[in-house]
Amino acid sequence: MPVIPLDDHHWALTTPASTYVIGVDLDPDTGEAAPRQTYWGPRLSAEAARQVTALPKRHVSSFSTPAEIEELLPVDGGKRWGSPSLQVTFGDTRSVELRFAGSRRHDEGGGAERLDVLLADAHHPFEVVLSLRVRDDTDVIERWTTVRAGAEAVVTRLDSGNWFVPDAPAYRYSGVFGAWAEETQLQRGLLPVGELVFTSRQGITSHTANPWVMIDAGAATEEHGEVWGVALAWSGSWRLTTTQRPEGGACVSGGFGHDGLRWTLAPGEELVTPPALGLYSDGGFGGASRAWHAYARGHVLPTPAEERPVLYNSWEATTFAVTEAQQLDLAKTAASLGVELFVIDDGWFGRRDDDTTSLGDWFPHRERFPDGLRGMLDGIRDLGMLVGLWVEPEGLSKESELYRAHPDWALHMEHRRRDEKRGQLVLNFARDDVREWAIGWLDGLVTDLRLDYLKWDMNRPFTQAGWPERGGDQDRVWIDHTRGVYEVMRTLRERHPGLRIESCSGGGGRVDLGILRHTDEVWPSDNTDARDRQTVQHGFSQLYPAGAMSAWVTDSPNPTTRREMPLRYRFHVAMAGVLGVGGNLTEWSASELETAAELIAQYKRVRATVQHGAQYRLAGTPGQERSAVQYVLDDQVVVLVYNPLGNAKRGPRTLRLTGLDPEALYELESDGSHWHGATLMGAGIRPAAWEPIGADHRSELVVLTKLCPGR
Ligand code: DGJ
């Protein structure tokens, strides 16, 4: 039973390896209810959890109230001065005072149980429901909040939940930050006293920060130590506020929207947040990542059990200049290499010769495809490949038939400019008519062209994010646009169960556990330089699984960085995710094509393990020194080993594997030799790519097979 009632207002939520104890504090003088977290850590028995609730409360002085950092949803109201998780204005009064209104437990089936804690404002007709879901196969706890108004109320902050991290002398935070073409750079640092805000105010998840944070007490390593993580499943603007009080204690409150956003609830209306997810792990950062990956595969991704096909994408080869002859040429070569899915990128529609025009005009480019796309796509299909197209449904060019017909469909504000970014505006997906239009043409496109795959791009942040017809309630677009995107994707998938979708936003601008509920993979960065990509992939892997990470092999020198790199290195880096090819194959030599075909065939033999297995980041800073990443699934062990600076004398020569069965024997595929798991983990292997005398950018793929124990 994952939710254990300890009394009528305390509960222990149990996961396979953790316990989360909460209760509703009732102030005996005022009657105010404050739902509070009293424990989050290693799994406790019900008896031990009950004891936790009897622990004396924190000392509260007149000038500070560290107690509020333990609250599940600290409100703006009463004796609180921290960053609120819920802020509401009723008429002229900006303050919330809550009363406890009971609780409900729901057996949701499939090993999931939900607890709803019901609260209501002491005076105004305003209900708050804190929902918590625990499952019996993951340590991730899902939390979200619902508010309901009986009379008009203006919500200016509504987080999914506040998570308290147990007391420690000091804390570290880990997160990923970056920029376009430099996404998901892992940053780990001392958590400062005060409030540390990670956020996106862009209307998309953003390249600059990603909606998760992990906290440890400073001692966790890759494979050891306690880590507490919070991630938000949301693809619009968001905010995670981590607070460390000077008196001790830290918490993370996370939710959608951002400061300044107003949501006016009409009488009878409710607002539901996206889920914020919390994970406790005592397996270090690696253990935490594997738990997040398993959660994403088990409870987020729509098609986690499938093996993702090897893809070819034409963007870097042809950019906007898409023609039938050149795509078919590329397709023939791609098919001969073993590519399984051919995706035609930007440039096939409207009058799209560059990025200044045609977003919204989703009909085939009349000059280049006077007879439509069907002939070209059939030609690709005849080569034995699946077929995909690039689309940017939220994009709108001023220079388009759609904009001329519906200028009001763009996000805009009265008496304000309509600023373009990358030559385009944003279509308002909060509008019913826009979503109907989007579903209409996307459904038609997928049906008529029998598409297997869409690459759904989104190439700019919001500006002038208004919707004048909504009057004073225009801020809704910040939330309802994202919900609209989800709805269109969900509808398309329902109508086309075979359709697979890739999320892209100018590279990795929309990578999060919200979009992964509706898409099968994400494009993490427009930077395809294998060295840079290793850093991006390292950061990506902290939360997201390799089976959702698109990774292409492109040309050398790399079109963005001009760095030259051997084909094998480029392949071995891309083989750490969902392998794709994105180079100009018409310029690859016969021997390069032969190597590519050999490596694609190798990838197909290990991809189930890479895409669905347990991932271990073994050694070194990826892209900067000798490093390796390992995947284990059933009896197969796959290790990708990298040495970017071949001649470096310093650094390890042996590579200790991890996560193996110490008692079992493993066969090394390259020479058939047998090794005990204990030897591989204790002493390690000696990768040729790590020998110090040699060229830069050496890499290798090591495959081992587990034999019966003791054989
Ligand atoms: C940005 C994407 O990240 C690229 O891969 C490519 O699809 C371009 N947009 C096309 O405009």
From TrEMBL:
Ranges in coiled-coil conformation: none
Record-listed E.C. numbers: 3.2.1.22
InterPro entries (alphabetical): Aldolase_TIM, Alpga-gal_N_sf, Alpha-glycosidase_related, GH, Glyco_hydro_27/36_CS, Glyco_hydro_36, Glyco_hydro_36_C, Glyco_hydro_36_N
Record domain Glycosyl hydrolase family 36 C-terminal: where: 627-704
Pfam family membership, one: Melibiase
Keywords: Glycosidase, Hydrolase
Catalytic activity: Hydrolysis of terminal, non-reducing alpha-D-galactose residues in alpha-D-galactosides, including galactose oligosaccharides, galactomannans and galactolipids
Domain Glycosyl hydrolase family 36 N-terminal positions: 35-266
Family: Belongs to the glycosyl hydrolase.
Name this protein carries in UniProt: Alpha-galactosidase
